[in-house]
Specification:
Layout: E1 2-3, E2 6-7, H1 8-15, E3 22-23, E4 28-32, E5 35-38, E6 41-44, E7 52-54, E8 56-59, E9 64-68, H2 75-93, H3 96-111, H4 120-127, H5 139-157, H6 170-181, E10 186-187
Parallel strand pairs: 3-10, 4-9
Antiparallel strand pairs: 1-2, 5-6, 5-7, 8-9
Helix pairs in contact: 2-5, 3-5, 4-5
The protein binds zinc ion.
Length: 188
């Protein structure tokens, strides 16, 4: 299997170029045909007859990332999505002070009515928010902050040619980039 004519191993070796140092136990990567998320389960191939189509999924406790095989035809999308999934593990291990600080950044954006995102996942999570969610820390809000974090990383460390996913105003992008660049000692 390969990405745009290169073997997958060649491409994965390049994946780490430009990423910050992230320490942690191995995370396994699985490539499967057509993926759908249905009631907390990931269905693939012939079983993927219901639920929402997804490009990838992460299983934090199993330390496993599953990506859809069609992504291997597009190195830019694959990088963007793999960084997003990798940063789900980083968010999990980030620690409360950093999580709170990122949460405040996102809360400010929502409170002043900033529109736009740095990816599809945070856009979907934001569309599920209800009035008052940004005043508390319920599951919808937590999910939105987490997806915003992973989309921010995917933009910052991913392939910036995927501008179609970017609708956040430039100044806000710069704020998020500054925040992310200041993070050191990342674990996954
Ligand atoms: Zn995500």
């Amino acid at each position: 299997m390969g990405v745009e004519g290169q073997p997958l191993s060649f491409w994965l070796a390049r994946f780490f170029i430009g990423l910050p140092e992230i320490v942690g136990s191995p995370i396994y990567l699985e490539v499967l045909p057509e993926l759908r998320a249905y009631r907390g389960e990931l269905l693939s191939g012939e079983r993927a007859t219901r639920g929402n189509a997804v490009h990838a999924a992460s299983f934090l406790r199993e330390r496993r990332i599953v990506v859809e095989d069609a992504l291997l035809n597009n190195a830019a999308s694959l990088r963007y999505i793999l960084v997003h999934e990798l940063f789900h593990f980083v968010w999990w291990r980030l620690g409360n002070p950093s999580r709170r600080s990122f949460d405040m950044l996102i809360r400010k954006e929502v409170r002043v009515g900033i529109r736009g995102e740095l990816g599809e996942s945070s856009g979907v999570a934001k569309s599920k928010l209800q009035a008052g969610d940004c005043e508390g820390s319920g599951p919808r809000w937590k999910n939105y902050v987490c997806e915003s974090f992973c989309d921010t990383a995917a933009w910052f460390y991913g392939d910036r040619t995927i501008t179609a996913l970017v609708s956040l105003p430039r100044r806000r992008i710069a704020n998020r980039e500054l925040w992310l660049a200041a993070q050191t000692g990342l674990r996954a």
